[in-house]
Amino acid sequence: MSKPDSSRQNVALLVIVAALGYFVDIYDLIIFSIVRHKSFQDIGIPEDQMRVMGEYVLNMQMGGLLLGGIIWGVIGDKFGRIKVLFGSILLYSIANIVNGFVGGINEYAVIRFIAGIGLAGELGAGITLISETMSKEKRGYGTMLVAGIGVLGALVAATVAKYFSWQISYFVGGGLGLLLLFLRIGTFESGMFRHVQESSLPKGNVLMLFNNRKRFFKYLYCIGIGLPIWFVVGVLVTQSPEFGKALGATEPLSAATGIMFTYLGISLGDVFAGLLAQLIKSRKITVLLFQVLILTSSIVYLSSTGMTPEKFSWLCLFMGLSVGYWATFVTIAAEQFGTNIRATVTTTAPNFVRGALIPSTILYEFFAVRYGIITSAYILIFLLSAIAVFSLSRLKESFSKDLDYMEV
To answer: Which residue, 117, 141, 214, 296, is the most exposed by fewest CB within 10 angstroms?
Structure first.
């Protein structure tokens, strides 16, 4: 059986490169939500169509993430995690540069779809590599650092968008990705994957997730525990200008400011979740605690009539902290499955969570036209959190689990 690569220098390089990769990934993933209003104004989208067209473009990006998660997951298990890290960042970097030249809503949506395909590979491949390389007792620290540093890309995105045009914001994201390709030279493949290459068992076979009932439901439960995360980011924060109007905010709320503070909170949350899981030796209890925080922060946000910009910033920080178990969620998914389909699971699960924003927003709109956006948001956040808690109850604790095994 293969052992985790023990060289501290190699492991440190891998964690740094994975963290920087996720940093660029988050920048490019979230930049649309930050520049949505400004870019839509420039390409001629009417004010009363901003919210609906924003959901259209965001859902196209999420659709790309769904497709890309499958593509990169299969590549990761069949040909190696490193190939995913190089290929995915090249695709989404080029797409984001092209995005700076769009002139219409459909063109915008298609480019975000392509960018979504590229963005789908980064986190899953990085978390898989770290999980398979570090010791089972300490791998939580590695994934914690990747997420804690990586989500700060949202703060840089918000800062760039504040001082430069939306076109430049996209160019910067693409340029950062291309620069990162050079840093990836010298990264190494995991020993567990090299061991799997010698086996005749199927690798990266997506059907393995569906041809076994127990495995299929375990996969669904892994996805279920992450569902509330992207509703908070993709709806409650991204649509903060609209929520501000509905709540009678004293001034128009800025989505860019909301995203910045939310991702600062996510960064803090990822560090807190990682440390807590290591301290109590339980990822399940950690995620359960964060579900309580999600409901608490969402209720406070949706009931804050007459909200000030200052209160909005603090609430976004709180909501970000409450959904900051992203790395813990992805690590749980990685720890539930064997090496021959681990990259497929770890890459598809977070992207299916992101892609689940599509049915979530459809259901949200269904209730919104009947009860208004505030009541609709209450319904969805309680529903998604209930699904997350149920899914969590069905999964086994995976802390310190030996990952050097294969699915048959």
So the answer is: 214
**CATH number, domain with residue 99:** 1.20.1250.20
Task: Please indicate, yes or no, if residue 367 is contained in any of the structural domains.
Answer: yes
Residue 104 inside a domain? The answer is yes
In degrees, to the nearest 5, what angle opens at C-alpha 186 toward C-alphas 406 and 130?
Answer: 35
- Give the model's pLDDT for residue 148: 77
Residue 137 has a CB neighbour count (10 Å cut-off) of 11
Higher pLDDT, 202 or 207: 207
Q: How confident is the model over 118-174, as pLDDT tens digits?
A: 988 887 788 888 877 877 778 878 888 887 788 788 889 988 998 999 999 999 999
Give just the sign of the alpha carbon dihedral 319, 322, 323, 324. Answer: positive
Which residue range(s) make up the domain with 141?
A: 8-185+204-394
Q: How far apart are CA 342 and CA 129, in angstroms?
A: 10
For tokens 């300490």, name the residue: 138
Helices 8-42 and 50-79, interaxial angle, to 10°? 150
Q: Which residue has the tokens 């939310």?
A: 262
- Integer Cα distance of 265 and 276 in angstroms: 16
Residue 92 lies in a domain: yes
CB 273 within 8 A of CB 290: yes
Residues 380, 281: Cα–Cα separation, whole Å: 31
Residue 216 carries which side chain, given as an amino acid letter?
F
CB 139 within 8 Å of CB 274: no
Domain count, the chain: 1
Query: What's the pLDDT at 202?
Result: 65
AA identity, residue 60? M
